[in-house]
Amino acid sequence: MRTAILELLKHNAGQYISGEEISRNLNVSRTAVWKHIRALKQSGYDIEAHSRLGYALRQNTDRLLPAEIRAQLTSAVLGQEIHYFCEVDSTNNEAKKLAANGCPEGTIVVAETQVTGRGRLARSWFSPFGKGIWLSVVLRPPFGPMDAAKCTLMAAVGVNRAINAVTGVGCGIKWPNDILWNNRKVVGILTEMSAELDVINYVVIGMGINVSIEHFPSELAPIAASLSVATGRSISRVKLLAAILDELENVYVLVKKSGFAPVLAAWRKESITLGRQVDVRGFDRSFSGVAIDIDADGALLVKTPQGVERVLAGDVSI
Ligand code: BTN
To answer: Which residues hold biotin (predicted)?
Structure first.
């Protein structure tokens, strides 16, 4: 019923429609109409109520509500099942629970805010309410665990393309999967998986996209940025989320059809790491050199005075 009322309001967007007309049209009591309108307002829809004229939708919500996402979605598999939370500990945690319980491939978890959002290398991820896209996607890729790291590179290519298509802002990928604008991080990606020796049960790709955060905590302020600051205008999170799912699906379909080579080639083109002097901080060693390429496994190849080092994990600063 709520969706039907919303459809009526959207159909007459900006114009009043009386409570009586809604109740007659949808065969529901005026009190029920009023309760649904109140709930819609709580979901972020800007609805004006006038005692004589009725209700008018002034502005659509920018909340990442499943109905709003579905209205923009063009992907065939990603986002067919959507789990939405106003607040959650971490969308990756929720997605992992769903995946372990057998949810279909393409299931997504989105939240307005995360209480304990997680980043790579056991860092926390700043996830303020309504200011970003805190998203996890469940994939069940038909390849072995050795290929999981490349899923992260694949996700970075998909997200970078979606950002470019929706905002026009030119970002670059820092190895392995940060998306930077002006040397500041606008997107982080955390891939987690469950696997047997030779088969992946599921991969959860968690993406944190800073859309409209204006004030970061002091430790992040010099190194983080938001897309709205990069573009100087407001960005529809719903539209961007739908584009991310679409582009991610495109690259995923390509990988399943042709292997990782085309996506690694795209990653190289969109990279801001290759050709640069980098400092590598690994688990057991640190060194500096020039990032010259990524290999077929997605490892970063760094040329040092001692020779070419292969980096599969760790922190790389440019
Ligand atoms: C990083 O750059 O360190 C990765 C950050 C990943 C953050 C996202 S936000 C959605 C998902 N849920 C989490 O707890 N983390 C990822």
So the answer is: 90-92, 114, 118-120, 185
